[in-house]
Amino acid sequence: MPDLTGMNSLNYLDLSNNTFDASEAPTWFSTIPSLAVIVMESGGLQGKIPQAMFSLSGLEQVLLNNNAFNDTLDMGNSISSQLQIVNFQNNSISKVTLTPSYKETLILVDNPVCNGQLANTIYCSLQQQTITPYSTNISQCGPKACPQDQSLRPKDCDCAYPYQGILVFRAPFFRDVTNATLFQQLETSLWTKLDLAPGLVYLDNPSFNNDNYLQVTLKLFPSTGMYFDRAEVLKIAGYLSNQTFKPPPVFGPYIFIGSLYPFPDGNGGGGSSMSTGAIVGITIGCALLIIGLVLVGIYAFKQKKRAEKAMELSKPFASWGSTGKDMGGAPQLKGSRWFSFDELRTCTNNFSEANEIGSGGFGNVYRGMLLDGQVVAIKRSAQGSMQGGLEFKTEIELLSRVHHKNLVSLVGFCFEQGEQLLVYEFVPNGTLRDSLRGKNGIQLDWKRRLRIAAGSARGLAYLHELANPPIIHRDIKSTNILLDEQLNAKVADFGLSKLVADAQKGHVSTQVKGTLGYLDPEYYMTQQLTEKSDVYSFGVVMLELITAKQPIDKGKYIVREVRMAMDENEECYGLKQIMDPVIQNNPNLTGFKRIVELAMQCVEETAADRPAMNDLVKEFELMLQDSGGSNSNSNSAASSATDFGKRKALLMFTVKQ
Questions:
Q1: Where does 337-425 sit in CATH, by number?
Q2: Nearest Cα to Cα of residue 492 among 551, 409, 422, 550
Q3: pLDDT digits (tens, 9 = 90+) for 309-355
Q4: May I ask which residue range the UniProt record assigns to the signal sequence (predicted)?
Q5: Does 48 carry a binding-site annotation?
Q6: What fold, for 145-258?
Q7: Which residues does the annotation mark as catalytic?
């Protein structure tokens, strides 16, 4: 299980349904002060339940069902006043020390204690206390009811047509949907910033959906009369849809899903003045139009079939769907080309094991030699890991337009006979992680590590600043940095990359993906991916260059270990004991302290506190000039490394995680 000690801004934790080794509850459950929700269902937890966990001041929910906790449940006498629900269903709890101060939901179904001490009590029933979410108070209106599409206006209890929709908050800093203080703050900010009067805002039914987003029903009322006019609705909709309205910070970022407004001029409000004859005429006209469209559609379908057949004969890769359905024609490639499956099978000797140089959940990677003598690495997707045709086409177009000396180049692709293959340039000296471990017979001195860091930063800066549109890699790690013949760094594997199509937006909202240990904590919490997410991962790689340790090693997180050991008054910034032995006694560690400082800036928890990748490149260039090594091609692999015998060229393309 990962050690999350020190992640003091973590608000929501969900580690459910993992395959961790069985263990007791980690101590950091009780040491992260900002935690509001702890979810770890079916997580292999056992032993005694930590009492201190329940005293976290902001804790609202504890969902630890389907584990193996045993002994006594004692929540103590310092239980968080925010705690709404505690679920230990299906554990092995044999005794409970009940705390009178806790009067909210406690679920103990399917525990031994329900066969003895608490048999037939509410704690052993799934019918627990119902939590009533916040709703704007209209109790002063009494039992008055309104016609369909109308609602009671809180201000004066008159019926009116509200403008309504759903507010979806993607990263709120709380979980208590009964907290009247917070939702009243939201009401106040809405009527203030939307230029409405008090009593014209109604909030209802706050709840968390399956994505753990907070949804709130919103109704806004006209100050007089029953309707808003069109200008008012357009103004309000624009403020909410364009996110000009800023909610209280505790609610975090949001989106607004508005409903159509029933204006009184025939769009749901006041009936129709159209004559029967006009209605009949329109009906006949629509019927004739539909018949015409059907005939045109049949003709177009036949023409499309003929065109598809001709396309198959002239361009074997123009059809991208597994069923032969056209997905948009051939990809728009820049500097890459199409290979036939037979051509790639021949150059790898029928994908023989002797030519296999890497493997993973995606499939295998093979070394091959093209007819012109060029050596390439061919990534062949396994049947179960293949993308849809359109997604594969998008990835090819992305890779083909990225050209930089510090990025692995795409030579071409194959999409034929139910196969998906990518052909890359061959990078002979394997991954940075292999070199740091000495697996491939290479030992990296300090100067070469500086050059590798600088080269990797140049490649990422190109993706962030010069690619059009900009690209966020999303999976930077030491196994995705390859070393060529002269040990120059090349960033590989854009399988998780995301395009930033809107430069003004500055981020991409996406499901969290990447590799544990390298993940930006802010991206993990907000699901908003930015270039600074790559900067965080790159900072972890810099710490690997210093320590040669994996990000998470024996339950210890490299960022936390370095932060705890740092002491600017000691030799090597206090990191002597955790440094890679290869560089530990090097008397000439040019820029070492500055590298440590830059790495720790990169792994700041808040993205705004991290440097841009372009700024890092400038810092590396200055350090390389000071060390006399600004020319990254000055030394070959043989002269910059210790040779432990004949080295086998390796290329590793890691599994997308």
A1: 3.30.200.20
A2: 409
A3: 555 544 444 445 444 444 445 565 666 788 889 999 999 999 999 99
A4: none
A5: no
A6: Alpha-Beta Plaits (3.30.70)
A7: 475
